[in-house]
Amino acid sequence: MKQIELVIQNQSGLHARPAKVLVNLAKRFKSDISLQHEAKRANAKSMVSVLTLGAVMGSRIQIQAQGEDEELAIAELEAAIRSGLGDNDEAYALPPAAKAESKPAAPPVQPKPRQSEPGLFQGLGAAPGIAIGPVFHYQAEELNLDALNVEQRDCKVRFLDALDLAKEQLEALHRQMVEKKMAAEAAIFEAHKELLEDIDLVDAAQARITAGTSPAKAWQSVVDEQAAAVAALKDPLLAARADDLRDVGQRVLRLMLGLGEKSMALPETPVVLLARELSPSDTACLDAERVLGFGLVNGGPTSHIAILARAMGLPAVVGLDEAMLALAEKTPVILNGNDGVLRASPSAEALIQAQAAQQRWLENRLAAQEKASLPAVTLDGYHVDVTANAGSAANAVEALKMGADGIGLLRTEFLFLERSEAPSEEEQYAVYHTIAETMKEKPVIVRTLDIGGDKPLPYIQLKAEMNPFLGERGVRLCLNRPELFREQLRAILSAAPAGNLRVMFPMVGDVEEFRQAKGMLEELRRELGVPPVPVGIMIEVPSAALLADKLAPEIDFFSIGTNDLTQYTLAVDRGHPSLAAKHDGLHPAVLRLIAHTIESAHRFGKRADICGELGSDPLAVPVLLGLGIDELSVSIPAVATVKAQVRSLTHADLQTLAREALDCSTAQEVRALVKKKLG
Ligand code: PEP
Ligand code: MG
Question: Could you tell which of 411, 449, 508 is best to mutate to test the pocket of ligand 1, judged by most ligand atoms within 8 Å of the CB?
């Protein structure tokens, strides 16, 4: 047996995400691995078990491994824990007001209403902003299994099937959120899925089922017990994970009982939603058109509910006294997520003040938004297009509304995912046509299917690959499946005359690949008798960046995909749970490839754009501008802020900054340089 003692360094302790990294790592070893914290012992391969350890920052834990690979297991777990278990604690960072009030190991705050002012409830601000409107009470539907008298035969879906279905639902929710550019928040649902794969949880439920308890009751009792154990933890951040457990518990239960997904019936007119609690799934599905903000009795400023509310731009207050649940429906209230106050039936004066504060807050947010449709020009007249990355026809409408100068990247995978057969040419045409019409004269860069090892499709038989990211993906896959490729190209070409469509090939590695793809496009264009469209490639493979001067004469534009370019240049998996900090597109090695690409494009009179996430990083925007980028294609919500930032910069200074950045040795040096130069 091998063992080691370590101190947890994560600011927020072993909360859901680092626990997940630890558990996944432990599962890779055959040895039995346990963790001990004070008197508690946990199975390192069970997420729930690890969470119930209640390890906070500074906790000492002993790791024990027993088995054939015990030595390696201890070494790798030690390295992972010492490097922070992939946790940058960013999404969990408290809003400033909450930070001041919450000390690491303090019990959850349960503020009481201030008696001096009736109708005033003091809670904790969980998401900024001010909501003014009528109360709507939401009560989650309780599944009382005793009342339902759920026996074996009443379960419509078997336990293990329900687990699988729940995982599918969570995967879909995760994907939707990633598409909405809430990747960090989407990880919440990945962690939920992880809970459903928890050996301890599933085994305990199975054991009760085997012993004769009905599956629904067995599952609920296990979830209730484990959630109670997690909720009893001293640290409020860890205790808040009990909500996650109950949420996934309910999801599986509903499936077993054939009840389908929960839905919330909201009044037509917008409301301030008050509830004892909301589950993360409820929160992710809130209709922002009908809910102005929400106040809860339970939940903390670091709960997943708060994280989601911030990402969705919904003002939220948590930790409110439960007396607020007695407020009559439709009572007018002011909910202030900045200072954590709920004020019922406000006086005319308080209402005027709140409206003014709300106005100021909205104005600031709108100031950037209002100018969003104006061009992004630096103080000394350098113009850059700011376009949006889109993944659906609805995104195109949204991008236009948010002031985008076009769509710099249309990820067409959305048409191909979550289905059992490929979309027909007609179906594809209809969607591209709609998007072209929506955007009118504004350019839309349609990226051809970028699918492959990491994003498999059930109807495309792919051989198992050792390294899917280095395997048959992007344009390589399409060239090997000409029928699939031709259908898509025909659909794009036919839709192009309806607007300003351009074609872009992903993952091109050299001139030959581009010529082959362009050759097919040209042949189809002649057959269809439609006008030519501009054709470009993504620069996301280092070989293409290095050969940009050879590719530039043949293409119409480059679009630099920094997500993949960084991954391949630095040999850092873009989705790696513990290497996220190393996947930094401001690394000078990546910047040199970007510089060479831009310079090669300009030498041949072509455009060079960016469509990777780096384009909306406030520290990267000045460097990219300094390098001479022509277009930044960013996530839809970032369009207004990126434009506002461009307007505050002077291009001449940025050129010097970019030269200095290229001369740095590390990404950290580049970041420090930009901060120093621009404040
Ligand atoms: C990229 O790689 O930077 C990119 C924009 O493409 P995707 O993220 O779709 O791989
Ligand atoms: Mg890519």
Answer: 411
